[in-house]
Amino acid sequence: MKTTHTLLTLMLAAAFALVPLRSAFADEATTDIAFSDPSKPGTLKIRVWHGDVSIHGADVKAISVKSESAPASPTPRKDGMRVLSSSSGFMLTEKENVVTLEYGSDGWTGGSADFDITVPRATSIVMGNSAHGDFECSEVSGDVDVRTMSGDVKLEEISGGATVETMNGEIDVQVKELTAKRPLSFTSMHGQISIRLPQDSKADLRFRTHRGVILTNFDDKALVTKTVVSHEKIRALSAKNKEKHKDKAGADLNLSVNVDLDKGSGSVLLNAPAVPAVPATPAESSDDSDGDWHAEVRDSIRMAADEAAMAAKEAAEAVHEGMAEFHAQFNGGNFAPLPPMTGGKVVSGTLNGGGVSIQAATLNGDIILKKID
Q1: Is 2 helix (H, G, I), strand (E, B) or coil?
Q2: Are the C-beta atoms of residues 104 and 111 closer than 8 Å to each other?
Q3: Higher pLDDT, 129 or 167
Q4: pLDDT, tens digit (0-9, with 9 covering 90-100), for 154-198
Q5: Measuring CA to CA, how many Å separate 300 from each of 90, 291, 308, 309?
Q6: Are the beta carbons of 144 and 155 closer than 8 angstroms?
Q7: Residue of 123, 169, 120 lying closest to 145 (CA atoms)
Q8: What is the mean pLDDT of residues 342-349?
Q9: 194-228 pLDDT, tens per residue?
Q10: Sequence ranges of the domains in the chain
């Protein structure tokens, strides 16, 4: 009897525990919207300030949106007044084969809502103005453009182009197949970037990280790479000075410039080739042209060091200014592109002979390239 009573108690507890879960699912509603021309690929634009967004490609003709937030109703109030402030619901509209989903235009003062969306596979996705929330997209062949302030981004089984930018979040991408002339670009200021490609993919790669490592399990026969720690402006300066100051016998002076963009410092190294000793005469030893030439070289070294340090300082200031502008525009409700990254460790190369361009950059995080067997 005691056993029966205990079993009954557990069953009742489980039943009561399921009540909120059932209610939560019951509160979710599905809203459908069709493209003007279903025969052509459409675009879905998403502006969700707070909340997770999950998108699935399927063999359907219309877009279905499931959320605990209800769609905003255009029905007038009974008292005849118009609501000028934004509604707590989401807006779903369509025009010229572009569907727009908007939620949380109140910004930081608004609530949070999650969205589960099903789209035709060929749909292109544009996600912007997201302050916080994870984004997932799977099984679409259209292009994907995602910009978010804070949140992880996961793309699975994609076969179109992709651009992902996030300030604070990891990026995880699984590519079903690469498509010609549809590049991939991934940027995270603070997060790991993981890219998984089919083993036979053909791509041109360029990866950059400041405080992380770049890893791969592709073998060195399939993936041929080189590592660079430099800056285009400084290399151009080095070449300019190297051409300007040549040894009289025709041998080049090897002038190399190294810059640490993180510390804002620079150094210059001058390697002069060995010159056969020539007996000097009093007239030669007092030749003013030699003294002038050495003085010019010293001045050039000082100038190159100063310009290298200045270039490092300008690059650092450009990043800080870009970040300040980014935050200002974002706080105003307009998501600005992340500032360009310079410096750090750069690995570039070709995969299986080269092909589609794939770029990845992160300030604090690793970059991982994996093959899908």
Answers
A1: helix
A2: yes
A3: 167
A4: 999 999 999 999 989 999 999 999 999 999 999 999 999 999 999
A5: 63, 14, 12, 14
A6: yes
A7: 123
A8: 85
A9: 999 999 999 999 999 988 999 999 999 999 998 76
A10: 29-75+84-201+212-218+353-372, 232-274+288-331
What does the alpha-carbon distance between residue 98 and residue 289 come to, in Å, rounded to a whole number? 72
Residue with structure tokens 């592709």? Answer: 218
Residues of 42-64 as b/e, b for ≥16 C-beta within 10 angstroms? Answer: bbbbbbbbbbbbbbbbeebeebe
Question: What are the pLDDT digits (tens) for 291-330?
Answer: 665 666 666 666 655 655 554 555 445 444 444 444 444 4
Quick count: other Cβ atoms within 10 Å of Cβ 229? 12
DSSP 246: B
Rounded to 5 degrees, what angle do the CA atoms 281, 282, 284 make? 65
Q: How large is the C-alpha radius of gyration of the chain? A: 30
Q: What are phi and psi of 214, to 5 degrees?
A: -115, 120
| Secondary structure (3-state) at 7 | helix
The residues that bridge with 167 in the sheet, in sequence order, are none
Q: How far apart are CA 314 and CA 231, in angstroms?
A: 12
Asked whether 198 and 371 are in contact (CB, 8 A), the reply is: yes
DSSP category for residue 289 = H
Cα 210 off chain centre by: 14
Tokens of 305: 């060091």
**What type of residue is 251?**
A
Q: Enter the DSSP assignment of 290.
A: H
Contacts of 132 (CB under 8 A, 6+ apart): 50, 112, 149, 150, 151
User: What pLDDT is stored for residue 150 in this prediction?
Assistant: 87
Nearest partner of 184 among 159, 211, 221, 210, judged by Cα: 159
* 315 backbone dihedrals φ, ψ, rounded to 5°: -65, -45
205 and 352 in contact (C-beta within 8 Å)? no
Whether residue 204 contacts residue 358, with contact meaning beta carbons closer than 8 Å, is answered with yes
CB contact burial 243-276 (16+ within 10 A = b; e otherwise): eebeeeeeeebebbbebebeebebebebeeeeee
Name the one residue in this structure whose structure tokens are 């050495």.
Answer: 294
Question: Facing residues of 268 across strands?
Answer: 257
